[in-house]
Design a protein that fits this description.
The structure holds two protein chains of two kinds. By secondary structure, chain A is an alpha+beta fold. Chain A has 16 helices and 19 strands. Chain A has three domains: 178 residues, no CATH class; 99 residues, DNA polymerase, Y-family, little finger domain (Dna Ligase, domain 1), CATH 3.30.1490.100; 92 residues, no CATH class. The longest helix of chain A is centred in the middle third of the chain and has 21 residues. Chain B is of the alpha/beta class. Chain B has one domain: 3-Layer(aba) Sandwich (Rossmann fold), CATH 3.40.50. Classes of the chains: A alpha+beta, B alpha/beta. The interface between A and B is large, with 64 and 58 residues.
Chain lengths: 473, 229
């Protein structure tokens, strides 16, 4: 078996700079008192170096962004890398906080040889502006050690791999610190020297644990790996190195996340109609920004247009330090059928229609768009029902001719009739219903022409009052 | 002399103003022959703004649009009602043969939203007809909508108060509607492309009640018995 290990030396720094439209100097700090752990190239160019105190670093570079090293945060970011990696490789094991192990042997044919896989991964890393040290190995441990010491080579030649493994210094072999010290004192500085020693002697002198570790390294002992499986939903977290105070500043990072979503959806052959975006603030609880499209969609540009509408109307309660994009609802895609050669078809129009409804709904709110439907009820108020456009389905249970004569305009609340009408045209039509659900009505309806020339739908209720309930527009 | 003129006319070498109805401006038939005859392109002009100014509601103003609505929804084109003054009553529309699936009522909160919605509806290829009841409109707003209407290929009808009839407007077609007898609606064409205004067209509409019910009058006149169950 051949293993491939990816070591991400600057994962946190690169994660933060992904959300920035242009690079800026950053440094990772940790410890008490805080010290610089890592510096990105821009900061390093000005002399910021690992081990410096924060004071020194900021004195060298006043506009340096300081990012606290957070291990749990880094694990989450590592999982995000595993998600895209999963599209290219099959078996993934996470080595928190900064490494991912994959099994490469079975994928060589798919990618056209090991070089093909290597190149694919490198170009994907490049596209994401990520640095990773790659290494092959015949055991998981060997691949990891080679990657971490940056001696990775794109080869599956046993001899070459073994040779580079032999040259690794003992202190980088991730053995127990005590054992490492003992080996160094014995004068065994590289792994090659240790491999020459018999196992029995090593076990006696260094303990069975260390011996097992070495056996796993060369492959004489089994090293089972815990496989990672991708989550069922899409989750992307963005962190901003600098607080974002205007909604326009959110567009760039979110656009990136949406593009990743598009890739993910394309890869899954799915669409979605609900995005959950959360904006995180320093103190206040997160702002929810649900994004809905009326039809399943997978293109980032479509979501971006909706997002832009949403952000235009949003007032930030306080600066934003990060955002999450989450999608839990996936809908499988249908291929549009019945397109003729010129794309003139119902499906094209349907798409424009869904697109328009999404736009309107996003800007005007959920309740602003309503579809009409006819209900089988004698009461005028109940006979016409509003529906939200998502649920609107054909309610054409009744035939046209079964419907009674009704006005085109229906008044939300009946208006009292002031003057007697000029001419009575039809009536009475008695409607007495609703005793079963507490909204009882008992009315006699007439159609009449008023002095103003309007034709109205009037009724007289049990109290004897006359009301206008509709206009024949 | 008259012989020469006849020859010229027969050879179609002279254009007569009478022939203007044959212009090829894209239009959607109104469904009323008399109205079609007076409109350029023989119907509601597409990609242009139409203003209707009824003097009151309930004089048959929607009846004028019904044939077009019915035809457009039948071909799966959307009909938007933006901020109507009352509820467009679904049973009546269904009875008239309108496909309710393509009818959307939009309610907006502000003038900006109203204009934005109008423009977006007009620019979409899915839209067949937009009917809007704007609250108040500046001349520049109407101009904006006229431009949006021109960019699309749909019908746009604005219902405005009759008091705006005297103001000038960039709309391509302006109609003033008034009540007439029950079988007609009186239409004044205040402005149209390629023609002079037309006064007092009496367009026959389907009366609400076909045969006046003679018994109705008797039933209503009498005082109603107070004893009700």
């Amino acid at each position: 078996m051949l293993w491939l290990y990816l070591h991400f030396p600057y994962l946190l720094l690169e994660h933060f700079s992904q959300s920035d439209p242009e690079p800026r100097p950053m440094a990772l700090i940790s410890g008490k008192p805080a010290k610089v752990l890592q510096a990105n190239p821009l900061a390093a160019a000005k002399g910021v170096a690992p081990g410096q105190s924060v004071q020194t670093a900021t004195a060298l570079m006043p506009d340096l962004q300081l990012i606290p090293a957070d291990l749990t945060e880094q694990q989450r970011i590592l999982r995000q890398q595993a998600v895209w990696l999963y599209r290219h490789v099959a078996r993934i094991t996470l080595y928190a906080p900064d490494g991912i192990l994959t099994e490469a042997g079975s994928l060589c044919r798919l990618h056209g040889g090991l070089e093909g896989l290597w190149k694919t991964l490198e170009s994907e890393l490049d596209r994401r502006n990520l640095t990773a040290w790659l290494a092959c190995g015949h055991t998981p441990k060997a691949a990891r050690l080679l990657a971490r010491t940056r001696q990775g080579q794109c080869t599956d030649d046993r001899q070459v791999l073994k040779q580079s493994l032999r040259s690794i210094p003992v202190e980088h072999a991730e053995l127990d610190p005590k054992a490492t010290e003992r080996l160094q004192r014995m004068g065994l500085q590289s792994l090659g020297r240790i491999f020459q020693l018999p196992d029995r002697e090593l076990a006696r002198r260094l303990g069975p644990e260390t011996c097992l570790g070495l056996q796993k390294l060369v492959g004489t002992a089994a090293d089972p790996q815990k496989e990672w499986s991708p989550p069922a939903h899409f989750h992307r977290r963005l962190d901003f190195a600098e607080d974002v105070e205007h909604t326009s500043g959110l567009l760039f990072p979110l656009q990136r996340a949406l593009q990743e979503l598009e890739e993910e959806l394309r890869w899954r052959q799915h669409s979605t109609d609900t995005l959950e975006i959360q904006l995180h603030h320093r103190v206040e609880s997160a702002t929810d920004l649900p994004l809905r499209s009326t039809a399943p969609e997978h293109r980032a540009s479509a979501f971006l247009a909706l997002l832009r509408l949403k952000l235009e109307r949003l007032e930030l309660i306080s600066p934003v330090i990060g955002a999450t994009l989450q999608v839990e609802r996936f809908i499988s895609r249908h291929t549009p059928a019945g397109d003729d050669l010129f794309g003139e078809s119902d499906s094209g129009r349907d798409e424009a229609w869904q697109h328009l409804l999404s736009r309107l709904q996003t800007r005007l709110g959920d309740g602003a768009l309503r579809a009409l439907s006819v209900q089988d009820d004698h009461r005028p108020e109940q006979a016409c029902q509003y529906q939200s456009i998502d649920t609107a389905k054909t309610g054409a249970a009744m035939t046209r001719h079964a419907l009674p004569r009704r006005p085109l305009w229906f008044l939300k609340a009946p208006q009292p009739l002031v003057h007697m009408p000029l001419e009575w045209l039809a009536g009475p039509e008695r409607i007495s219903a609703g005793w079963w659900d507490g909204e009882r009505i008992q009315r006699d309806y007439y159609i009449a022409r008023l002095h103003s020339g309007q034709t109205g739908w009037l009724f007289r209720d049990v109290t004897g009052g006359w009301f206008i309930h509709g206009w024949f527009g | 002399m008259s012989n020469i003129i006849d020859t010229l006319i027969n050879d179609a070498r002279v254009w007569q103003a009478r022939q203007q109805k044959q212009t090829s401006a894209p239009a959607e038939s109104t469904g009323f022959a008399l109205l079609d005859e007076h409109l350029p392109g023989q119907g509601w002009p597409r990609g242009a703004l139409i203003e209707c100014m009824p003097e009151a509601l309930g004089i048959g103003e929607l009846q004028l649009l019904l044939p077009a609505i019915k035809r457009l929804t039948g071909t799966r084109q959307a009909v938007f009602w933006i901020d109507p003054p009352h509820i467009p009553y679904a049973p009546a529309l269904a009875r008239a043969g309108v496909d309710l699936n393509r009818i959307i009522q939009v309610s907006t909160q502000s003038r900006q939203d109203h204009l934005w919605t109008l423009e977006n509806c007009l620019r979409s290829s899915a839209t067949g007809l937009v009917i809007a009841w704007p609250d108040q409109m500046k001349r520049s707003d109407i101009r904006r909508i006229q431009l949006a209407a021109e960019s699309g290929d749909s019908l746009c009808i604005l219902f405005r108060d009759a008091r705006h009839a005297d103001n000038s407007s960039p709309a391509a077609l302006r109609l003033k509607l008034a009540a007439s007898d029950p079988q007609h609606i009186q239409t004044d064409i205040l402005k149209r492309r390629g023609g002079w205004p037309v006064q007092a067209l009496k367009i026959p509409i389907t009366p609400v009640v076909t045969i006046p019910d003679t018994t109705t009058a008797q039933v209503i006149q009498g005082p109603w018995p107070e004893q009700r169950h």
